[in-house]
């Protein structure tokens, strides 16, 4: 087996950034989901679940350590990494409430224009990380702005199996993985507890429960009229907590990942 694709999502719930190599820190892939859009009034996070046009928003880390935002019909904007004196904004992501640096008024104006309502852009530094979903993994596992865990792994064989059942080829990016594995049987990842990629070990902590976001075409932002592939997942991958596809991981060390690296199942 080998690592066949790497993706990070600098801005939560926006376009993927394909990678050939990347380093790991204590929150997963370096720079993954470290930025987030929030409603200006409530501080609640925004996602494609309710704001479909976020699928068309591209966010790329720039050479200065900040973010470059671009979208159809909008001029690109360079956003600096918030400094030590940046305003802290209270935000809510699922059950977590925390205070994180705001990216400033210019960034706020740009994202408000794109979203169509008052919106702010925030960033999470390492020292303000959240704890992962309780009941899984270790008590000291942390995550940035990803839903519950730092990393998501999907086997290419699992996608092919689902595509066959749906009756048409499906894009891997519908499922927003960080790590794609080639050479394993369909849903082999369901039985893994620990794996190694290159020199880094990972714990497989929880299956990923899928939502309506899987019905959004990552290229167009349009939802499928037939609710696929979620409808099929709900028929043959249903568990008590939902329709499962992919596995959430936590890295137990740091180092480099590169497409093509061998993947070894340790447990």
Total strand segments? 21
Tell me what the CATH architecture of the largest domain is.
Answer: Beta Barrel
| CATH superfamily label of the largest domain | PK beta-barrel domain-like
CATH topology descriptor of the largest domain: M1 Pyruvate Kinase, Domain 3
Q: Which CATH first-tier class of the largest domain would you pick?
A: Mainly Beta
- Give the domain tally: 2
What distance separates the N and C termini? 15 Å
GO molecular function: catalytic activity; molybdenum ion binding; pyridoxal phosphate binding
Organism: Pseudomonas fluorescens
Pfam family, one: MOSC_N
Protein name: MOSC domain-containing protein
Structure report:
It is a single chain. The chain is mainly beta and 267 residues long. It has helices at 105-115, 156-166, 230-236; strands at 2-8, 17-19, 21-25, 28-29, 35-39, 58-61, 67-71, 74-79, 88-93, 96-101, 119-123, 130-131, 142-143, 151-155, 179-182, 194-197, 200-210, 238-239, 242-251, 255-258, 263-265. The strands form 6 sheets. Strands 1, 2, 14, 15, 16, 17, 18, 19 and 21 form a 9-stranded mixed beta sheet that branches. It has a 3-stranded antiparallel beta sheet with strand order 4-3-20, with no helix packed on it. Strands 6-7-8 form a 3-stranded antiparallel beta sheet, with helices on one face. A hairpin with a 5-residue loop joins strand 6 and strand 7 (67-71). The longest helix is centred in the middle third of the chain and has 11 residues, at 105-115. It is globular. The chain starts with a strand and ends with a strand. The mean pLDDT is 96.
């Amino acid at each position: 087996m080998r690592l066949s694709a790497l993706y990070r999502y600098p801005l939560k719930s926006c376009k993927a950034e394909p990678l050939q190599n990347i380093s790991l820190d204590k929150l997963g892939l370096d720079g993954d989901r470290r930025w987030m859009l929030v409603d200006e009034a409530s501080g609640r996070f925004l996602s494609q679940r309710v704001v479909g046009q976020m699928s068309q928003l591209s966010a790329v880390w720039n050479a200065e350590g900040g973010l470059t935002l671009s979208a159809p019909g909008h001029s690109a904007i360079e956003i600096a990494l918030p400094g030590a004196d940046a305003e802290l904004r209270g935000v809510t992501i699922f059950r977590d409430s925390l205070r994180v640096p705001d990216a400033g008024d210019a960034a706020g104006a740009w994202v408000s224009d794109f979203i169509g309502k008052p919106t702010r852009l925030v960033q999470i530094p390492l020292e303000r990380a959240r704890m992962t979903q309780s009941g899984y993994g270790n008590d000291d596992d942390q995550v940035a702005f990803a839903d519950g865990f730092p990393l998501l792994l999907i086997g290419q064989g699992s996608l092919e199996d689902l595509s066959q059942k749906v009756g048409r080829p499906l894009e891997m990016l519908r499922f927003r993985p960080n790590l794609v594995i080639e050479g394993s049987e369909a849903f082999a990842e369901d039985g893994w507890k620990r794996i190694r990629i290159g020199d880094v070990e990972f714990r497989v902590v929880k299956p990923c429960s899928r939502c309506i976001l899987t019905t959004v075409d990552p290229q167009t932002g349009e939802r499928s009229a037939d609710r696929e592939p979620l409808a099929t997942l709900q028929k043959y991958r249903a568990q008590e907590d939902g329709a499962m596809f992919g596995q959430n991981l936590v890295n137990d060390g740091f180092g480099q990942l590169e497409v093509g690296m061998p993947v070894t199942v340790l447990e």
